[in-house]
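Problem 12. The chain below contains 408 residues. Write out its predicted structure in token notation.
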Amino acid sequence: MENEEKLQEILRLGSELNNIQDLDILLERILLEARKTVNAEAGTIYVRDGDDLIFSHAQNDTLQKKLPPGQKLIYSTFRAKINRESIAGYVASTGEILNIPDVYAIPEDSPYHFDPSYDKISQYKTTSMLTVPLKTNRGDILGVLQIINALGNDGKVYSFDSDDEPFVLHFANTASMVLQRAQMTRALILRMIRMAELRDPKETGAHVNRVASYAVEIYEQWAFRRNVPRPEIDRNRDILRMAAMLHDVGKVAISDLILKKPARFNDDEYEIMKSHTYLGARLFGNKHSEFDEVASVVALTHHENWDGTGYPGDMDIVTGKPIRKDREGRPLPLTGEEIPIWGRIVALADVYDALCSKRVYKEAWDEDSVLKEIRSLSGKKFDPELVDIFFGCLDVLRSISNRYPDEE
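Solution.
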């Protein structure tokens, strides 16, 4: 790609990135497009959190090609102090670009060094590395973008050309502005979650991040089976992830006497508790975007069951009254594919996380018991196809669980 074409592509990408709302989806896209700009085989993104860098996202085309179609590359996240000893830490500390032709040939007197442990674990050879800071307009470091192994037209690994540096830096500056906006959006959502957490201790930031991430992975595999076009998948992943984080936001409207009751609900209390579904959906009733639509659907239907035993049923979110009634005047239950796919997915993701998690009223279940329960509920509580997909991407779901641990 010629220099003028690269610049035009970066400008176009800046506009596209602005359409992505969710932080994690945005980080994935930033890393992918940065790699494309300089034809890099792999890359990682680190996000700054106080004095630490969090290894946030990784991509590797060589390792990905070894996996079956549709399967995700699994990687471990970790946290490291910002200092000048590591390559990413040096870039975060100094704000400088590092263009290293061969990470295994870094001089011994250099302040930074390459850790080869990941290469040993993955059986991958890192050679060239271009590491760029992600900065705000004021020069504050948001994170570090690291792209690995420049590929030539012959498929061989080369050093990154010095001419690549200004383009990657320009892209990083554009990405940083969009990243700030996405971080603000995530912060606003987490503030809403903290409001719910004040009422219900189960609604933690870690819980909703896990549920949302599980939901996105399950949706992606569901869409892959249906040959949904990639742009549509990416757009829906972005929307679903944020909507799934807010699945229980309606609990802010439930009385503490019920929400925090240590014993089993009586019938009247259970009916009040069930209202958190349509009360949550009502928050997104004035629909101005696809996000409002999906968030409303998720809040309303994530307690519906495949066999029609869930709640709230066919309900008007404005009035709280049935649209279709049974003989007793209750809302007719939704069954099977009457339940929107977003609600069916989040229902499974939510129950999986709840069973795996310690609560004030229970210990976390062991994994065998959790998986046995999920299987037993296929065709009853859960869409059988989604249960199949769940087991097909279980390794990815486990890695997500490790990425968002509960606070001690």
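Discussion. The CA atoms of residues 7 and 167 lie 7 Å apart. Students who got a different answer should revisit the alignment rule from Section 12.3.
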